[in-house]
Amino acid sequence: MKTLFIVDIQSKFRNSFNEEYLDETISYLNKKGKDFDKIVCIMEKNVSEGDYIPKEVFEKLTYYPVFKLYEASYTREKLLNSTHFNINKGEITSNVEIPMGSFIFKENGGYIIGNRTNTSISMDFVCNGLYQLLNSLRDDDITIVGGGLYNCVKKTQDFLNFMGIDSVVDKEYCYTLEEDDSCSLDRFDYYVEKRNDT
User: Could you give phi then psi for residue 120, rounded to 5 degrees?
Assistant: First the structure.
């Protein structure tokens, strides 16, 4: 199946894309939308009123939009309530053995995914909705559009790669973020030691 994966075409990032970009993307959806079996969308979780996906984009979706948050502070917040990790006075300990390389742990509301090297661990929290969406696309040919190209689009592709799912980014239909827009590429990086129970 062919899937078009739209990232953050929403009013929160309106400073980063103009009407021409939006018109071209809508035209692309009108012309090429029928070539895709699925059109899915993720958007930055935002509590401010009036944040929306443009109507012309929303009407083409085959699934309801999934909310996500890609910031290290969000992952840290989830680690504070984790069953696998403890944070005390800024120090992290692990309640489980963390394997070298890629790892994933089920948590309340989602998954902690990451990568361990000899010197550090990089982690992200992926909410259930996003994880289920990504997992449902496992056998699809995925094209990603939206923004920011070097931020949330890249991180979405990184998550897909982590799950062993190939995708391509159509840069012609991506925008880059202005400095005052936030869509973090950072991960929660820390050296984590296994807690020794005595």
Answer: -155, 170
Length reported for the chain:
198
Q: What is the pLDDT of residues 109-147, one digit of tens each?
A: 899 998 888 888 888 899 999 999 999 999 999 999 988
Can you give the residue ranges of every domain in the chain? Answer: 2-69+137-175, 72-126+188-194
Measured distance CA(139)–CA(123) in Å, rounded? 25
Buried b (16+ CB within 10 A) or exposed e, 167-187: bebeeebbbebeeebebebeb
CATH of domain 2-69+137-175: 3.40.50.850
Distant-in-sequence contacts of 46-54, Cβ < 8 A, 24+ apart: 46/10, 46/12, 48/12, 50/11, 51/10, 51/11, 51/12, 52/10, 52/11, 53/9, 53/10, 54/9, 54/22, 54/26
